[in-house]
Amino acid sequence: MKPLWKSGSPFSKVFSPATLDAHATLFVCNEQGSLTMGRDEEIAIEWDCQKLLRQYYHYVDKKEHEKAAELFTPDVEWSSMGVVLKGHDDILKDLHGSLGDGTIRHVFTNAVVEVIDENHAVSRSYNTNYYTRGIRIEDCDESIPFAGPHRLSGNDAELVRTEDGWKISRRAMSHVFRHNPDERVGLEIWGESAGKMEKTETVSVMAAPLR
User: Fold this and answer.
1) Residue 7 falls within a domain, yes or no?
2) What one-character-per-residue DSSP string does 165-207 give?
3) d(CA 112, CA 152)
4) Contact by Cβ (8 Å): 117, 94
5) 206 part of a folded domain
């Protein structure tokens, strides 16, 4: 890759050398004279997308459900444990309905973000859940006893850049481990009562799987 202003591309006729050099770490020009994304811009997108996914779990764990829902696009599609949700209203109803009387903590790990272009990315990660129904940590003077993680899931997501920053447009979760497969969790109970259950545990919504 050559510096933009030395490449002989059309960009050198529009922007000054100082302007092109200032953005050379974000976008570079290939040998054919086309503008392509530089590694620094990819790293910035990867960081923003990982931060967005982590922020979601912090909001959920603190029961800040409205803030959590705002991290999704208005037309989001989300699936987990056979429950399929579409849009902000479904997300909010699920969070309030399935997590209202318990304590949950998410441990988000092994995230890999693949940048598709400057406005689109996909991610894959693991999520370990620690969950106790009917006990609110806010009402406890001591820590809550537990026998180990409740479940571990694999997570796929699609992310898009909007006028308000990066948002999650699709999510699909499938379980790898469950402490007690016969015990239904709040999401499954709420999903069945709300008519949001499908036959399979999860429906993949990934349009561009990681390579």
Assistant:
1) no
2) EEEEEEEEEEEEEES-TTS--HHHHHHHHTT-B-SSS-----S
3) 17
4) no
5) no
Residue 105's domain comprises 38-193
Q: Which is nearest to 62 in space by CA: 29, 92, 37, 99? A: 99
Give the domain CATH number at 85.
3.10.450.50
pTM: 0.76
User: For residue 71, is it within any domain?
Assistant: yes
Cα 87 to chain center, whole Å?
A: 15
Q: What is the pLDDT along the chain (211 residues), one digit of tens a residue?
A: 444 434 444 444 444 555 445 444 445 555 545 556 788 899 999 999 999 999 999 999 999 999 999 999 999 999 988 899 999 999 999 988 888 778 999 999 999 999 999 999 999 999 999 988 888 888 898 999 887 888 999 999 999 999 999 999 999 999 899 988 888 877 888 888 888 888 554 434 344 444 3
Q: What domain count does the chain have?
A: 1
Residue 76 within a domain: yes
What are φ and ψ of residue 129, in 5° steps?
Answer: -105, 135
